[in-house]
Write a structure and sequence with these properties.
Elements (H helix, E strand, L loop, with lengths): L31 E7 L7 E6 L7 E6 L2 E6 L6 H14 L7 E5 L4 E6 L8 E3 L4 E7 L7 E2 L3 E3 L11 E5 L9 E5 L7 E8 L5 E8 L4 H15 L5 E6 L3 E6 L6 E7 L11 E6 L7 H4 E5 L16 E2 L4 E13 L10 E4 L10 E2 L6 E4 L4 E6 L7 E7 L1
Parallel strand pairs: 1-11
Antiparallel strand pairs: 1-21, 2-6, 2-8, 3-4, 3-7, 5-6, 9-20, 10-11, 10-19, 12-16, 12-18, 13-14, 13-17, 15-16, 19-21, 21-26, 22-23, 22-24, 25-26
Protein name: Putative tail protein
Length: 390
């Protein structure tokens, strides 16, 4: 039996393929990986039905995906009775209860929640004594392309050992906030220093002399810091003329604040009060939440028909490289050992991808966690090798 192999011009390469995006570049026993469950930003549909009036012996109808669900009030109708009755009728209807579950608050409101995230349905009424309102739209989790940064800002699934994973983006995090409260003393210096924990560098410092009152001191500190701080880093704000807050401008950025008091009057305070109001934690810091780079998988398909970019779908296990070498997408000219930045803009199709240049929506990764290893052999390869240790 004769066997043939068909080739066309586009199948012929001048050199062997260096790798694929997300492919581990050094299969080794030293490599570490983890499997994450991708559930972000999925949501179940939520609606409310508010009962605004009660009429005796009346049929109250709610229509869910074309199915009329009816509750008929009794001869002494109350709003609470109708709310409870409608919730029970929805949960008892065999054509509806597979899609959603209703809960009455025992007073006026019935909350109807989809049984599954990402599944939508219609819910309406045509009764002047019922008001149906949408609260949360159904949403599916994002697909996760290979070779993107994965983070876990929420922890583990309740009562299970499954670890959640999210394609890195700013909306997955809450901005870090630190509150600083100077204590006013004449001729004393308040010293405040802000350090970017991604690079270890001091990005702003102020030494401000107390000369008038606490309100003026706070104003002067805030003005000086905001003049010094780089764009898209940390923002200082006056809080009632008695304290100031320092807030990350890109959610996911981690910073630290060092405070002190210089020499001054004998009654000078020994320190400045500093409170970590929000974070640092996995919910505020991409450094603490980082869980590696999504790896290439032969078992996952392209997202679109005839698409060329395969991705992990919603709710599947995403295998992520914690330590080792991995190929990632890059059209930039990469120099070994240089700084790695990750795109954090939730609106960008490139969120979670890696770069060697900074921008207003990118965060630096410490060199001990990620560093560029090498560029592609061919400038047209659009891939580069990353060394990671998360």
């Amino acid at each position: 039996m004769t066997m043939t192999i068909s080739l066309n011009a586009a199948d012929v390469r001048t050199r062997i393929r260096q790798g694929k995006i997300g492919l581990c570049a050094n299969e080794s026993l030293a490599n570490r990986s983890v499997t994450l469950i991708n559930t972000d930003p999925q949501a179940a549909k939520v609606d409310t039905i508010t009962v605004t009036g009660a009429t005796n012996n009346k049929a109250y109808v709610e229509t869910i995906d074309g199915v009329d669900v009816t509750y008929t009030s009794d001869a002494t109708a109350t709003i609470a009775e109708i709310a409870n009755g409608l919730a029970a009728a929805i949960n008892d209807n065999p054509l509806v209860r597979g899609k959603c579950t209703a809960v009455s608050d025992g007073a006026t409101i019935v909350t109807v929640t989809g049984n599954w995230p990402g599944i939508t349905y219609t819910i309406t009424d045509a009764d002047a004594q019922l008001t149906t309102a949408a609260v949360t739209a159904a949403a599916s989790a994002d697909a996760v392309p290979f070779g993107t940064l994965m983070v876990n800002p929420t922890g583990y699934e309740t009562d299970e050992a499954n670890e959640y994973g999210v394609r890195a983006k700013s909306t997955a995090f809450t901005a870090q906030v630190v509150t600083v409260t100077p204590v006013y003393a004449v001729n004393t210096d308040s010293i405040i220093r802000i350090r970017d924990m991604h690079t270890g560098q001091v990005i702003a410092e102020t030494v401000m002399r107390h000369d008038t009152n606490i309100g003026d001191l706070i104003t002067e500190i805030v003005t000086d810091l905001n003049t010094t701080l780089p764009a898209a880093s940390v923002l200082a704000a006056d809080v009632g003329g008695t304290a100031l807050t320092l807030t990350a401008e890109v959610a996911g950025l981690e910073f630290d604040v060092e405070v002190g008091v210089g020499e001054g009057a004998a009654a000078a305070p020994s320190t400045i009060a500093k409170v970590y109001t929000t974070g640092p934690s996995i919910a505020t810091s991409v450094l603490r939440a980082a869980r590696g780079v999504s790896l290439f998988s032969e078992n996952d398909e392209a997202v679109t028909v005839e698409g060329t970019d395969a991705s992990y779908a919603a709710n599947v296990g995403v295998r992520s490289l914690l330590e080792g070498l991995v190929w990632v997408e890059s059209s930039q000219v990469i120099t070994a050992g240089t700084q790695v930045y990750v795109e954090m803009s939730a609106a960008s199709a490139d969120r979670g991808k890696f770069y060697n240049t900074d921008s207003a929506t990118r965060l630096a990764l410490p060199r001990e966690k990620a560093v560029w290893e090498r560029d592609a052999e061919s400038g047209s390869g659009s891939i580069a090798m990353l060394r990671v240790n998360f």
